[in-house]
Amino acid sequence: MIEFAILILKIAIVIGAVLLHVAYVVYFERKVIGHMQSRLGPMRVGPHGLLQPIADGIKLFFKEDIIPAHADKPIFYIAPVLGVVAALSSFAVIPFWESFHIADINIGLLYILALSSVGSYSIILAGWASNSKYSFLGGLRSSAQVISYEIAMGLSLVGVMMLAGSANLRDIVAAQSGIPFILFQPIAFFVFLMAAIAETNRAPFDMPEAESELVAGYATEYSGMRFGLFFMAEYAGMFVMSAIASVCFLGGWSGPDFWLFAHVPKVVWLLLKIYAFIFFYFWIRATLPRYRYDQLMNLGWKFFIPLALANIVITALIKLAV
After folding, report:
1. Predicted local confidence at residue 97, as pLDDT
2. Phi/psi at 39 (nearest 5 deg)?
């Protein structure tokens, strides 16, 4: 009974922290991109616009929830919820430090990859259920994009699992006690980073919601809180991918062991690494134009997948030689 209560408490802490971060990462994005474009970003609600995420949440909660007359209503209802549940469930296996995780399973990486695939179904179902050509095209684009970049992402993590000898995320962090895997797996890190951007439908790979072509893509017919749920899932997915990159390539919660750094709480090191990846997402969005769809697919199948396969072969040969 006590173990069950502790588990529920852990789940509440993790979900609460994630939702708070998701709310304020939108504010952070608007501020960062604003300063990159020589403007201020949100400034009106609260000091320096700090209450803007709360105002946006209240607005979305009370906004009219419009459902198209010819929509497939059950699927239309389920689609945004499915995306949020898949994104939040991924945090169950992420170790925030040695002794704090919700579930410690031996196939943690495979679990997260599986849930990222489930999350993509929310976009595909939303595109189908909306009964709109724009939404349908967004859903089709998403299905092709996810299939392409899910393969590249999975292959990029094979080298990490080979070095660690495990798919358990705590074991992967423990295997990097001396040197982070980014130094041994720079190719895999690059492929993972690009695939993570494509998996979360972020610029320059934001084809499923390309505003200049598809209005809002799969979310065109959504309004109110259901619209908000899609973007909650997207930003939660960004945190999941940033956490995996931090755990698999940058040593997770581990930090320098000298001088004052040795007294910094371990969770702070993990959060700093996650924040760095989140900033990279924003930097890329403010810098690069959107790819054409054929360029996106060619990049996935003709460059990233062969590169990830070559990295597996090189890693295997080095392990055999050593």
Report:
1. 83
2. -140, 180
* Measured distance CA(238)–CA(200) in Å, rounded: 6
Contact present, 245 and 193 (Cβ < 8 Å)? yes
108, 171 Cβ separation under 8 angstroms: no
Which alpha helices (DSSP H) does the chain contain, by range? 2-36, 52-62, 73-89, 108-129, 133-164, 169-174, 186-199, 211-214, 224-249, 266-287, 293-299, 305-321
CA angle centred on 189, ends 319 and 306, rounded to 5°? 75
Q: How far is it, in rounded angstroms, from Cα 62 to Cα 229?
A: 14
What is the reported pTM? 0.93
Domain boundaries, the chain: 68-321
Q: Which of 119, 75, 91 is nearest to 22 (CA)?
A: 91
Place 179 in a pLDDT band, splitting at 50, 70 and 90: confident
- CA gap 133, 35 in Å, rounded: 36
The Cα 63–Cα 219 span in angstroms is 15
CB atoms within 10 A of CB 258: 7
pLDDT in tens, 239-287: 999 999 999 999 888 877 777 777 788 888 899 999 999 999 999 998 9
Q: What is the mean pLDDT of residues 94-105?
A: 86
Token digits for 227?
């619209």
Lowest mean pLDDT among 95-99, 162-166, 284-288, 302-306: 95-99
Q: How far is CA 212 from the centre of its chain?
A: 24
- Cβ atoms 136, 44 nearer than 8 A: no
Minimal CA–CA distance to 29: which of 250, 282, 290? Answer: 282
Residue 11: partners with Cβ closer than 8 Å, 6 or more residues away: 92, 102
